[in-house]
Amino acid sequence: MATNPFKITLLISILSIAIALTLIWGTAQTAPNLIHYSTLSNDPYIKVESINVTANGVYIRLAVINNGALAFTPTGGWVEVVETGQVVNVTVINGTVIAKLPLTPKWVGLASVGVKGIVSGALNGSRAYIAFFDVAPIHIINTIGIADVSYADCILNVTLSVNTVVPVVIGPIINMSLFTVSTPGYYVFETIGIVNTTVYAPAGSHNVTLTIRVSPALGRYTYVYSCNYFSGFSKYTLWLPIGVTYMYPTGNVTSYTLLTKTFVVGGGS
Amino acid sequence: MRIEALLQFALAIAFIVLWVFMPTWLMSGVNYSISLTPWGYVVRFFGETYVIPPPTVYAVWIFAIGAGLTPLVWRRSRYSLYLAVLFSVLSISMLMDTILFQQRYLQFHGYTIAPTPTGYIYVSLPTRPVLGLPTYILLALTILSIFNMVTRARWLGTRVIEDPIVAVERVLKALHIEYSRIESGVEVGGIKIIRQGSSLRLVRGSEAIEVDLKTAIIETIKAGLKQPVSVGVVDYGED
Fold first, then answer.
1. B31, B48, B120: residue with CB nearest A131
2. CB A36 to CB B43 under 8 A?
3. DSSP B158-217
4. Which residue among A9, A19, A36 places its CB closest to the CB of B83?
5. Which residue in chain A has the smallest CA separation from B66?
6. Higher-confidence residue: B163 or A135?
7. Closest CA to A229 of A193, A198, A268, A197
8. Per-residue pLDDT tens for A67-105?
């Protein structure tokens, strides 16, 4: 054969090296069109679900909104309330993210606050952080309940447990009654009209006692059937419709609420 | 066909077949991964899959086939072994260039940030680079082709020739002397070398004498050179 193997090899070598170089160059040229940019869509985010201001503290509940296939599992994080400057770590209880802040006087005068922070966790198994800022209205939660009742010698002692954000004035009482829980029921006493007994409770968690002498002196329509519990009846119910005046910095707000308590006296039922 | 060259071809085929099933290069991660397949980069991102085909990736396996096939197709000259080395080196170069493409254009910092209605989400996506098994086979192919080039594909060693007739035949083949096989021997020109048991007999016309292997080879060459020399085929024999 006349062909020189060296020449053939040289020719093929040059050709293949040229192809290789062309491909490298061509790849670099076409790279911007080849690559594909993608970002997360329908990614989970954080919303402030509720802000409850109670006498025990401020509870901020954060909701993780998973819309789509991506699931975010929170494990920790922190929040800052912009208006008060408070910064606390959140706690995660069964997937619910809650931050508890101490109650400061500033909270009472606010209607809504901005909450910012970061919640850390896992997104489909990858470590992820969600930074958020959200404005949410404040719910001020005041609770007043009857803790204990005693009635003897026409004197009614009602212990009220008061959990309020602001100082309150409890009273007056309108149309209260004490009756037996039985069929038929019997009134121990009943008042028709306003009993002007008030008691003051400061902000926070306290027990206050209302002491009322139940007698016709309270008003024209006060009916007292007994100055003590009936013998033979041990289960009673106290109806106590009462006015509560909340002393907010912006002004006093009075609302009426019905407090009831069913209780058992002595032994047995 | 030399076993050494077949081995080189087998490695090339093994590389390509294996590559179909496992990547040569991989950035492994939980929700984000990049793997290099014969048809391009397969990028997985939170359940979505994209194929990015850089043209150099096709050259990787085309050159690898060339490196395996050239010594089988072109057996006359040792230059085919040189060419196979060039192809295997080009194949590795193309693979490296494809990996560089990932480093340059599919660069990934290990996290992604996306806006949300109330802020941003930052997702950490750590990845670990892994060289796959096919890459090591390609490396072995290159090393073998270089070794074959250096040894002219003869590193498996010359077999010990037990049959003296085969030894005579080899010499004749190497010198491109035409001969014909006869029963238990060879015939060159007017002479025959016949094996009888463990000894060789030189038959010239009606005369027959007992010779040793050295004499037998010299006599056959003498007889062979008297006839026109034709071109025979010796694997990778030419310069």
1. B120
2. yes
3. PPPP--HHHHHHHHHHHTT---EEETTEEEETTEEEEEETTEEEEEETTEEEEE-HHHHH
4. A9
5. A16
6. A135
7. A268
8. 888 889 999 999 999 999 999 999 999 888 999 999 888
Q: Indicate whether B100 belongs to any domain.
A: yes
Nearest by Cα to A44 from A63, A18, A16: A63
CATH 2.60.40 fits A143-264, yes or no: yes
Residue A218 has a pLDDT of 67
| pLDDT confidence tier of residue B164, bands split at 50, 70 and 90 | confident
Residue A87, chain B, CB below 8 Å: the answer is no
Instruction: Establish if B234 belongs to a structural domain.
Output: no
Same domain, B97 and B200: no
Chosen for mutation from A29, A30, A37, A43 (greatest number of chain B CBs closer than 10 Å) is A43
User: CB distance B31–A35 less than 8 Å?
Assistant: no
Instruction: Please report, for chain A, the start and end positions of each structural domain, with discontinuous segments joined by +.
Output: 45-140, 143-264
Model confidence over B17-31: pLDDT tens digits?
999 999 999 999 888
Q: Distance, in angstroms, between A122 CA and closest chain B CA?
A: 8
Do residues B25 and B119 share a domain? Answer: yes
Task: Say if the Cβ atoms of B53 and A34 lie within 8 Å.
Answer: yes
Question: What is the model's pTM?
Answer: 0.68
Domain carrying residue B21: 3-151
